Hints:
The chain is an alpha/beta fold and 139 residues long. It has helices at residues 18-25, 33-40, 82-88, 93-97; strands at 66-68, 77-81, 100-107, 111-120, 127-129, 134-136.
Amino acid sequence: xxxxxxxxxxxxxxxxxxxxxxxxxxxxxxxxxxxxxxxxxxxxxxxxxxxxxxxxxxxxxxxxxxxxxxxxxxxxxxxxxxxxxxxxxxxxxxxxxxxxxxxxxxxxxxxxxxxxxxxxxxxxxxxxxxxxxxxxxxx
Length: 139
């Protein structure tokens, strides 16, 4: 039995100075060396293919769509408005049933974030993050 061939898509950043590139994204210089390597792994996180368009769930969001909120015991968890979540996932039945998504968010003015965004009714912003999700400070 010969295994079925799989298509592999590789994405990479080429730069003469990786640290300079990282510093444009977030303040990697404040991290100890062991944490720098761990945080670089966030760039390589896998993404799920979305059923509605068969594309990977990698989306561009505006920095203004994200606001910081106080951590009220929701460590590792932020919130996403129902309308924004459903729009990101294709405004279909599956999107309406989704309760949360796992994210990696890179915003130079806010930092690097990792965690879960849970559906929340009645919030004024599209995405709400707390400090527990921030893995690297802003650049």
